[in-house]
Amino acid sequence: MTGLSIRNVHKSYGNVPVLKGINIDVAEGEFLILVGSSGCGKSTLLNMIAGLETITQGEIAIGGRVVNDLPPKSRDIAMVFQSYALYPSMTVRENISFGLEIRKVAPEERKRIVEAVAESLQISHLLDRKPRQLSGGQRQRVAMGRALARDPTLFLFDEPLSNLDAQLRIEMRSEIKMMHKRTGKTVCYVTHDQVEAMTLGDRIAVMKDGVVQQLGRPQEIYDAPANMYVAGFIGAPPMNFIPGTLEGEGSGLVMSIDTGAERRRLALPFRPADVKARPGQKVVLGLRPERITAAGASTSDPLKVRVDMTEPTGPDTLIYATLNGKRTLCRVQPFAAPKAGEAIALDFDLSRALLFDPESGARLDGGLAG
Amino acid sequence: MRPDKLVARIAIYAVLGFFALIFLAPLYVVLVTSLKTLPELRVGTMLALPQGLNFDAWGKAWSSACTGAACNGLQPFFMNSVYIVIPSVIISSMIGSINGYALAQWRFPGSEIIFTGLLFGFFIPFQAILLPAAQFLGMLKLANTIPGLIIIQTVYGIAFCTMLFRNYYVAMPLELVKAARVDGAGFFRIFWRIFLPISLPIFTVCVIWQFTHIWNDFLFGVVFSGPESRPITVGLNNLVNTSEGVKEYNVDTAAALITALPTLIVYIIGGRYFIRGLTAGAVKG
Ligand SMILES: Nc1ncnc2c1ncn2[C@@H]1O[C@H](COP(=O)(O)OP(=O)(O)O)[C@@H](O)[C@H]1O
Ligand SMILES: [Mg+2]
């Protein structure tokens, strides 16, 4: 049995299509992330799962049951919102038990559930306060408590952490992860934050303009993005996209790189037969910053690069350089970092390099996984 | 404080005090006149203080002054106004708040068009609806009755009340309704349990506004009332225009004050909340 199944779902507002055929199957107990830039239709999809928006076309099933025509309260879901949406005139206790009260849970049972939930979220001392007397983090916990009290088969989260400061966000992130481990319930979680997506999700659906660009495990999406949009969206700092022209050399493929300090042809690790591009064609080379590091004794063929700017992050230092006219980030150990204006010898690890079409953004190398 | 600043401060207070006096002068004249006897009025100037606190004129205005043929004072008119104002204010505020909640929080197809229509209704002049309204009341067999006036005042007030509440509720996040719907609550339960309890400030504004408006209304009152249902503004008009020989200014001014008293009291009690309610929406929005 699947936890959630979204089949060919479309949504239009008037004549404007917002979702253009979404297909996602979520296993029972799985943590699915919907991620994408603002306005791509994440909230719309989540609201349709919740029953807060009508489904223009397609089918949504929760726990094996098609819910297209069921109202939200009959879908056995709970939802946490970005603004928390706590009822302002009710105390924390009343907020958490409101849904139970409507479903006619007996008062003693309600009390027991509220107290157990409050205990698990460490908000027992706040039960008699009003929402306006709470800090952002506490409100967030109450919103979680309201969802937990319902004990649904499916949890829906719409950017629940984006109103918190960085510190609290990390804390609540791990708490949500622990809650998922503890309850084992299916979760559908919307975020525009790719770090949240990577750390929380069993699987991630990357969306753009109402279309799922890629659906896969976090590492899969990181290592083998389906196209340039996904490659650029997942990962911080983002993947480098170095423009160039594909050239043939012997039986292999190469690409010229102008670093500002020297000009060289780098051998690409792709078999010409696998690559959906011919020599002479313009391509984009995708390479993550951590694949460009300071050359060491073992580097066979270091490349000299002029440094535009450096950015120490603590564990390592980011180096900005210009390759083929495009700003490129490299990640080096702090002790190896030069100053701006100096040159540095870099080790380009092309074993994980990707090749994209500059026009369509499609992957051109044959290493497409999954 | 530096001397030049002090001078500026004194000048500001002098100007403010001067204008306050100008605005208060008519009230002062009306008040002292209502406390004087007729002989006193003949000899003294308008601004002179009365010789004592003499409420005879007030008594006469309330219960025995002539308003046309009848000589029962303002009392029956006052009670008519009370019977008209209280239900009209309550009903128009309640309907306005539910309308405003629906328009702001449920955004159904066409809700913007309805809101624009209501705004339009808000700007329709009284005079334009007199004839159709009279026909309508005739059809209901409520012409010249208090229930008829209640209906007219309520309907005319709904547009304004709806706009007031809509603008208040539109500042609340739409996610509140979504959360409550997921919790299993419906349209009216969400209104009753979530929106109504946070509506006190805007209710105060609406009630004060509607009370003042309906209490002070003359046009509807004179057009749609019969001998038994005339509101106090019509009573005051009749009282002032009925004279048997000598003009009793003390009774006229006492009657004017009696007419104005309820709105004054409502303002004094609710004024603070009025300002707070008007600005509450603005701050959040
Ligand atoms: N009620 C609505 N009417 C018309 N367009 C809407 C409505 N709700 C959302 N949209 C549009 O749908 C698109 C997706 O919105 P949304 O799902 O909120 O995006 P996201 O949550 O990914 O930021 C946006 O372009 C938005 O303008
Ligand atoms: Mg959103």
Automatic annotation (TrEMBL), chain A:
Provide GO CC annotations from the record: ATP-binding cassette (ABC) transporter complex, substrate-binding subunit-containing
Supply the alphabetized keyword list: ATP-binding, Nucleotide-binding, Transport
- Give any GO molecular function from the UniProt entry: ATP hydrolysis activity
Family annotation (Pfam families): ABC_tran (PF00005), OB_MalK (PF17912)
Q: Where is the ABC transporter domain?
A: 4-234
What is this protein identified as? Answer: Carbohydrate ABC transporter ATP-binding protein, CUT1 family
Question: Is the Transport keyword given for this protein?
Answer: yes
Which domain of life does the protein's organism represent? Bacteria
UniProtKB/TrEMBL annotation, chain B:
Task: Name the source's superkingdom.
Answer: Bacteria
On whether Chloroplast is a keyword of this UniProt record, the answer is no
- Tell me which CDD domains the record gives: TM_PBP2
The portions of this protein that span the membrane are 12-31, 82-101, 113-134, 146-169, 190-211, 254-275
Q: Could you provide one GO biological process annotation from this protein's UniProt record? A: transmembrane transport
Asked if Secreted is a keyword of the record, the answer is: no
- InterPro entries xrefs: MetI-like, MetI-like_sf
**Alphabetical UniProt keywords:** Membrane, Transmembrane, Transmembrane helix, Transport
What is a single cellular component term in the Gene Ontology annotation? plasma membrane
Q: Mention any Pfam family matching this sequence.
A: BPD_transp_1
Subcellular locations according to the entry: Cell membrane
Topological type in the membrane: Multi-pass membrane protein
* Main subcellular localisation: membrane
| PROSITE patterns in the record | ABC_TM1 (PS50928)
Q: Which positions fall inside the ABC transmembrane type-1 domain? A: 78-270
The UniProt similarity line reads: Belongs to the binding-protein-dependent transport system permease family.
PANTHER family documented for this protein: ABC TRANSPORTER PERMEASE PROTEIN, GLUCOSE IMPORT SYSTEM PERMEASE PROTEIN GLCU
Name by which UniProt lists this protein:
Carbohydrate ABC transporter membrane protein 2, CUT1 family
- The organism encoding this protein is Devosia enhydra
